[in-house]
Design a protein that fits this description.
- By secondary structure, this protein is α/β, with parallel strands linked by helices.
- Helix content is about 45%, strand content about 20%.
- Helix 3 crosses helix 5 and helix 4 packs across helix 5.
- The radius of gyration is 16 Å and the shape is globular.
- The mean pLDDT is about 85.
């Protein structure tokens, strides 16, 4: 079962896929799409085309797709960037969801927790901060037994795909039991 993960961003969007082979997860592909458009509209189009191309290459084998949802940090001083990311996610959902398979949504901290084993919001007393991008890269490298860590955005997308593998397995067990 191939699961594809997407880490959306207007400067760089990560896309990655993993498949389960017995107890192990195996890398199918990863890529980082870096749009060159000058306007937000052009960047969104470039990202959608790039992701659509990657997903459609694997559409016959892939059955599940997940996208990392934006995180609104209360201390964020750039709400325009957050809104632009929301626009990108909406465009990606519009392009990808009607095609073949369900589109899952995951919070960044949940995807990071799936690969690192921990992940907190970093706010409040006694809460651990969320894992760093480097920690996610190294954990993805370890889980998928890669020679070198994938780039940051691709590692986040692979973390989403790894989370999705676990999520789908749980859902399949529940369906079999009922």
């Amino acid at each position: 079962m191939i699961c594809i993960g997407i880490d959306p961003g207007l400067s760089a969007t990560g896309v990655g896929a993993v498949t389960d082979q017995g107890p192990d997860l195996v890398l199918e592909f990863y890529d980082t799409i870096r749009p060159k458009g000058l306007t937000t509209q052009h960047r969104i189009k470039e990202v959608c085309w790039g992701v659509w191309g990657k997903v459609h290459q694997w559409s016959m084998a892939a059955r599940f797709l997940a996208i990392e949802m934006p995180f609104l940090n209360p201390k964020n001083r750039n709400p325009k960037a957050f809104m632009n990311q929301c626009l990108l996610i909406g465009a990606l959902m519009r392009e990808l969801s009607p095609d073949w398979f369900p589109l899952y949504e995951v919070r960044p901290v949940v995807a990071k927790r799936a690969v690192t084993g921990w992940g907190g919001g970093g706010f409040g007393r006694g809460r651990k901060p969320a894992p760093t991008k480097r920690q996610v890269q190294l954990c993805v490298q370890d889980i998928l037994k890669l020679e070198k860590p994938p780039p940051q955005d691709a590692a986040d997308a692979l973390a989403v795909a790894i989370w999705l593998q676990g999520e789908v397995k749980v859902q399949m067990r529940i369906v079999k039991e009922h």
